[in-house]
Amino acid sequence: MYFLGFDLGSSSVKACLIHADSGSVIASAFYPEREMTIASPKPGFAEQQPEMWWENACLASKAVMQKAAISADEIGAIGISYQMHGLVVIDKDMNVLRPSIIWCDSRAVEVGNSAMDALGEEFVLPHLLNSPGNFTASKLGWVKQNEPDIFSKVYKFMLPGDYLAMRMTGEIVTTPSGLSEGIFWDFVNQRPADFLFNYFGFDPEILPEILPTFAEQGRVTPEAALSLGLREGIPVTYRAGDQPNNAFSLNVLEPGEVAATAGTSGVVYGVSDQIKFDAQSRVNTFLHVNPISDSPRYGVLLCVNGTGSLNGWLRNALFQGNISYPEMNRLASQAPVGSDGLFCFPFGNGAERMLENQDPGSTFKGIQFSRHGLSHYTRASQEGIVFALYYGMEIMETVGVSLKNIRAGEANMFLSPVFRETFANVSGATVELYNTDGAQGAARAAGFGLGYYKNRSEAFTGLTALQTIEPQTGLTEKTKEAYFNWKQLLETNL
Ligand SMILES: Nc1ncnc2c1ncn2[C@@H]1O[C@H](COP(=O)(O)OP(=O)(O)O)[C@@H](O)[C@H]1O
Ligand SMILES: O=C(CO)[C@@H](O)[C@H](O)COP(=O)(O)O
User: Which segments constitute the Carbohydrate kinase FGGY C-terminal domain (predicted)?
Assistant: First the structure.
């Protein structure tokens, strides 16, 4: 038997087919080759067309099936991971009513702040663990206030992964973890937050059916099977936001375990069995996904929006697309630690939660024409992203999350030696890089959702640490000094 995982990222849709018993990857593919478009029709807006996600999912699925050369009858289940906090709205015929307002769109910040003021922090925080901020509920509130004609046609709202699953199965379903990432979940009453629906004036009927994360959530329809190159009737048995899913992929399930990723966004994610939250919502707490524990697990997450998005922007804007990421990494390694005093602030991809939803834009500081060249720009960008992540990690530590040992997939910006070494040197943490990614994790999770795997060792057979990066004596001092200067500049300029 095989399991098929999809990861709907902001840059591409990845698909991965694994063998159920050995856990080995049979084939993987992603579409498109260059990052998907994020449209910004107005400053602070970030939108993607759900149809584009579906088309790329179909291409990735067909490519995997072609590479694997197995019969689709042998696929036991499908799992889905997806970019979080986005909003998709559909009418009663399942037509999408407007482009998706995605996670890094900043338009709803004021809507969320007004909700927080009206409902009162003392009430909101214990129930939602976060401000409604810029999350899905506030985005839906924005549509209601600004696009009443569209809002009046909304039959259901959903998260990006719920949409992908709907296209596969025809079922409109979500999960408690998904509702928590949308800030629709009341942690006190362990159900959708009625008071928030009342505040925004949302009819509870627009909520999709709620099913567990690991369970059958629908079966591939004949029409979808044709588009995906699969067979009808394969069950979808798992869906989760890409950050809890990244943690799952790395077998980060229990308290004290920590995962990281550096895709379009960069995230550090710590698991806890205690409710921990930041009163300023600079780091966020959502329901984690854990198939082996009867009691809830929580994921405390810091997000830097401008991670791979900055790296991709540099590639396109500075190098006009004529360079590969490995070449950029080589260039970065030619500049010294601290980039000879060139500092980059990577905040050019929407409201940064860690900066209390300010959107200062990205800046390079300290440019000296006779000293700095392309290698400095490339290194300063990678260092700036790591410093921003570490700035958030310091906040996580104040919330009680310990960050000594961090697991990540050997993927995205963790492929860059400068990036991963700077990460270990500034944080003092040991970083373990594994042979996995979000699509592979979603495939393994589908096996849990089907009931095929019963425990961690069955589900994670073949998951291997490829390398361990320890802080380097001699470089930690210099890296920390560069971070200290970066942080001072950030705080004086905010
Ligand atoms: N070899 C590499 N070195 C450094 N960064 C890379 C490399 N390959 C890809 N990336 C970065 O990873 C980003 C894509 O990561 P990915 O995990 O696919 O994102 P998402 O899940 O958001 O779609 C790219 O924008 C790019 O900046
Ligand atoms: O907002 C967050 C996490 O809270 C982002 O991590 C999104 O989930 C998008 O992820 P990528 O496209 O960067 O994987």
Answer: 259-447
207 lines ligand 1 (CB under 6 A): no
Cα–Cα separations (whole angstroms), residue 182 to 71, 75, 177, 210: 37, 31, 9, 13
Distance 11 CA to ligand 1 centre (A): 8
Place 460 in a pLDDT band, splitting at 50, 70 and 90: very high
Whole-angstrom Cα distance, residue 367 to residue 345?
Answer: 13
User: What's the rounded Cα separation, in Å, for the pair 60 and 30?
Assistant: 5
Whether residue 493 has pLDDT greater than 90: no
**CB distance 264 to ligand 1 below 6 Å:** yes
Determine whether domain 303-435+465-493 maps to CATH 1.10.20.10. no
Q: What residues contact residue 282 under an 8 Å CB cut-off, 6+ apart?
A: 302, 353, 354, 355, 356, 392, 395
What band does 266 get if pLDDT is binned at 50, 70 and 90?
Answer: very high
Cβ(263) to ligand 1 under 6 A? yes
Q: In angstroms, rounded to a whole number, what is the distance separating the alpha carbons of residues 480 and 473?
A: 12
Is 397 buried (19+), middle (13-18) or exposed (0-12) by CB count in 10 A?
Answer: middle
Q: What is the per-residue pLDDT across 203-256, written as a single tens digit (0 to 9) for each? A: 999 999 999 999 999 999 999 999 999 999 999 999 999 999 999 999 999 999
Rg (CA), the chain: 21
pLDDT in tens, 289-328: 999 998 999 999 999 999 999 999 999 999 999 999 999 9
> What is the C-alpha to C-alpha distance for residues 140 and 151, in angstroms, rounded to an integer?
8
CA 435 – CA 411 distance, rounded (Å):
9
Q: Which ligand is nearest to the CA of 417?
A: 1
103 ligand 2 Cβ < 6 A: yes
Comma-separated ranges of CATH 3.30.420.40 domains in the chain? 2-250, 303-435+465-493
What was the pLDDT predicted at 417?
98
3-class SS of residue 190 = coil
Reported ipTM: the value is: 0.98
Compute the distance between CA of residue 214 and CA of residue 236 in angstroms, rounded to an integer.
9
From the CA of 9, give the closest atom in ligand 2.
12
pLDDT tens digit string along 337-383?
999 999 999 999 999 999 999 999 999 999 999 999 999 999 999 99
Tell me the angle at which helices 417-427 and 325-333 cross, rounded to the nearest 10 degrees. Answer: 50
Asked if CATH classification 3.30.420.40 holds for the domain at 2-250, the reply, yes or no, is: yes
